[in-house]
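Figure 6 in text form: structure in, sequence out.
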């Protein structure tokens, strides 16, 4: 069986051939792997920068899509249920979620993880949202940020404000009705602060950016001291800055709660209950233009490239 593994942290997975899998246990099913996406989590595991990556050799995959050749049913394979950078996987039946007929396996593999990021933030890390709540998505033009829009709509968002550096991309999201308005996360901090203050209170902030822009937004944000708090949730660090400078005055003068969303801030058991809904939504979304499939045999070549960093690569064990 062919598979790909990281032999040393910081290196790309190497495609190789090894022994076939043992027969699946009674509680398992053998799947032919169709697709596994290279999410930020997968890249972090390959680099040895995630708590789940403790030793090598390692299959750094997190999830994927496979088919039971005996029945023809296609399944989403939940996070860390099995190594998915391989031609086959033996998977615990309890960790499988059937994918609706007609759904594209590549799209489901690419988007389930991004959809889960905002879905779990809204279900596990915020509380008591008002009807028609407002949400500000920092980093809305990235894959995860874009999927946060339909997720927020599903959970009842009435107003969605997008924030990113690329104003043309933001204007396009307003034009197609995805978001209602936007602010630009570039230029002078004072300009961003004024734009944030002009928004008025918002109910939720989903942050994929962090860093200086986030600090500026939080320090300038207007909150409703007599009403519902603004619930801020950090999900990612696109800005590659793990720290922010938050004025103490901000915490004392605003009705603001701060949280993060990732395994550790919620239990895997709790998150697991949300997976069927997450997969069902991901299966309805169109494949974004920045989702790029490659054969698993090309993993080492495409791993450390601008395309891998800026787009969503999906690896296909059986090629295209």
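Output sequence:
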């Amino acid at each position: 069986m062919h598979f790909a593994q990281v032999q040393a942290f910081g290196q790309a997975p190497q495609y190789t051939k090894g022994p076939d899998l043992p027969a699946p246990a009674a509680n398992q099913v053998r799947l032919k792997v169709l697709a596994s996406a290279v999410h930020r989590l997968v890249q972090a595991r390959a680099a040895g920068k995630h708590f789940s990556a403790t030793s090598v050799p390692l299959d750094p995959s997190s999830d994927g899509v496979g088919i039971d050749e005996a029945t023809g049913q296609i399944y989403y394979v939940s996070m860390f249920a099995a190594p998915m950078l391989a031609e086959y996987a033996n998977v615990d039946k309890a960790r499988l979620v059937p994918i609706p007929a007609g759904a594209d396996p590549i799209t489901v593999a690419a988007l389930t993880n991004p959809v889960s990021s905002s879905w779990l933030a809204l279900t596990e890390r915020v509380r008591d949202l008002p009807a028609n709540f407002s949400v500000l998505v920092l980093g809305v033009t990235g894959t995860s940020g874009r999927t946060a829009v339909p997720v927020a709509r599903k959970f009842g968002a009435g107003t969605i404000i997008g924030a990113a550096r690329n104003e043309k991309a933001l204007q396009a999201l307003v034009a197609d009705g995805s978001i209602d308005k936007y602010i630009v996360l570039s230029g002078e901090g004072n300009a961003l602060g004024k734009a944030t203050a002009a928004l008025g209170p918002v109910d939720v902030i989903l942050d994929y950016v962090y860093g200086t822009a986030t600090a500026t937004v939080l320090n300038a944000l207007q909150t409703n001291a007599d009403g519902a708090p603004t619930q801020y949730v950090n999900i990612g660090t696109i800005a590659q800055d793990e720290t922010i400078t938050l004025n103490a005055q901000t915490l004392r003068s605003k009705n603001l709660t701060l949280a993060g969303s990732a395994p550790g801030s919620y239990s895997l058991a709790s998150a697991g209950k949300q997976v069927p809904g997450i997969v069902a939504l991901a299966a309805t979304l169109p494949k974004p233009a920045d989702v790029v499939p490659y054969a698993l045999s090309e993993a080492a070549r495409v791993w450390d490239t601008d395309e891998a960093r800026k787009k969503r690569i999906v690896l296909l064990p059986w090629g295209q």
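Caption detail: The two ends are 18 Å apart (CA to CA).
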